Amino acid sequence: MTDAAFRIVDFEASSLSGQSYPIEVGWCDLDGVGESHLIKPEPGWIDWDPRSEEVHGISREKLLTEGRPAQEVAKAYGRANGGAYLYADGIAFDQRWSDRLLQVARMPRLKIFEITELYLLALRPLLDKLNSPLRLPVATKLVRDAEQAVADRHPVRHRALEDARRLAATHGALAARVAELLS
Predict the structure, then answer these.
(1) Domains of the chain
(2) What does DSSP say about strands 22-29 and 6-13: parallel, antiparallel, or unpaired?
(3) Which are the contacts of 81, defined by CB distance < 8 A and separation ≥ 6?
(4) Which of 9, 77, 149, 151 has the largest count of CB atoms under 10 Å?
(5) pLDDT tens for each residue of 70-94
(6) What span, in angstroms and rounded, lies between the C-alpha atoms of 13 and 39?
């Protein structure tokens, strides 16, 4: 399977409540090449939490004036990512927002996996060489080191494409470190 089959996805949303809806979606491949879209709320999408707006910095007014219709975004998202393995760092929320977006266009569900599963794929060649007691502490340290190294290069947080790119870059840093340790 090629790297193109792996994608990172991230959503920003109106709130964290059960009535929340996606307001921005971004996705990228493992090289960070991707796209993002602001999503104009559907008529029934009225939930809004000002605290969430403080986090992502996207106002409802901006969505109404600059967002693309949810059905258009859903189709673009579904076409671009159908058949790919999708990963996110908050799948409980991201899966819900992905489902809600795709339902607007009556498109099939896209399964999202936890980003740590992708990180484990990068770590597997090294972990297979370590004995059991060392695996978890080594894996944890390598992931933390990769996250820290990438954080400085991706300072913007809570914008969908930048968050997806940060996760892709973390995977790349992790894979490079594993290759270095095995050489």
Answers:
(1) 3-114 (3.30.420.10), 115-182 (no CATH)
(2) antiparallel
(3) 7, 9, 27, 110
(4) 9
(5) 999 999 999 999 999 999 999 999 9
(6) 10
